[in-house]
Amino acid sequence: MAGMDRTWRLAYRSLVVCVALTQSAAADLFINEIFFNPGGSARDSRDEYVELRGTPNMPLTKHFFVFVENEDDELNQGEAGIVEAIFDLNNYSLGTNGFLTLRQAGSSYAVASGTTDIVNSGAGAVGWTPGAGSPLLFEQQVPVGTNNYLEGGGFTAMVIRNTGDAVTHRPQIGMDLDVGNDGLDSIATAVNGWRSNWEIIDSIGTFGESGEAPLGRLYAPVNFGFEVVGQPVFPGGPIFTGPNLEPGAVYVGLEYEVEYLGRWGNSDGQTAADWHVSNLTDNAATGYVPGSAEWRQSGDHVAFPGVSPNVETNQGTPYGTVLTNTLGAPNYVQGDFNRDGFVDAADFTVWRDASGATGIDLATDANRDREVNQTDHDIWKARFGEPISSGGAMAMFGPAVTTAVPEPNSALLAFGVAALYFSLRSRSDRRPRYCKLLPIAPRS
Length: 444
Fold this sequence. Notes:
The protein is of the alpha+beta class.
């Protein structure tokens, strides 16, 4: 059924209802990247950014990018659930390439052509605090001048669409989504008028720093944080049993500080594999140029299960890989040599043509050993097919298409595979799907 025409696909989709906590699966709009809490307070007010991706030229009328507090205390008397920062997207549209970036004052990132690129500016602009005449529409809970960056301790970030009255039901600073911080009247319940008129299109939650996860609360379907379930909260301390989450939500414990949340390439689902969660570095030994905006994959001196030693990433990204050079384009995926957000047959040709090249930051150097060789091909082969559409597009419309992975001496096969791959696996199918079939009533 993967090859069925558009008419049949639309007819088939009319039989499904999509559900995932409170998150909509209908809209083609995603949180693509959030870089927050870069090293050094001066960097916090320059190098943070957020990025959305979706349908090209999509108007964002009545859309907002909201950050919700994650902190709580042992008596459930913290501020978990409080709306602490809001980017008002009403006046914007996604760019002709389907991307929108929001950047701080003084930001120096390169942004791809066709992107709607909103940079904080105007008289007195600092960090995220807009200056007079700035195109950035941003509000924050703390007083202006005391904090010009996103909270490093973490948050739940949500893209929402207000389906109600434009004034009465818009998000406002200080709104409490979880009165009592116990989850009983949380977002999933949506009992209040302004809350029930929010359509949560995409979200991601994180505890960015150590020690917050045992007491806080997160509100996204997938959440990451600096604590590992089953391990002590601190040496000799109590065993961490997990944070407070919404019903059915997933928590992935990490042993490093979180500074970067990005979708893995052009992923569109809501599993841990759809996200790239990292700590970044400006260590000059990685090739970072002092003062530049090309932050890189960080590492530590502790090896932990399931991740390569000394690398602080949930996706095995090699130490020193540039991760902040894709604004207005698909995010990094190891093995994606043509940088289109997918590891597929087209990448084989790029690897083949570059084989033998040497240097730093080569697009086809998958393991970052500064040489394009057989090892890079083997990594591409192992990653072939990523990111997998975890929403199950192929499962909905028919069995998944399996494609042989070409070998280095099979150039003609690569082109044949590419043709088959793109004819059977339309990328328009790679959308979030949190769906179940409605029962069809028998005929009377």
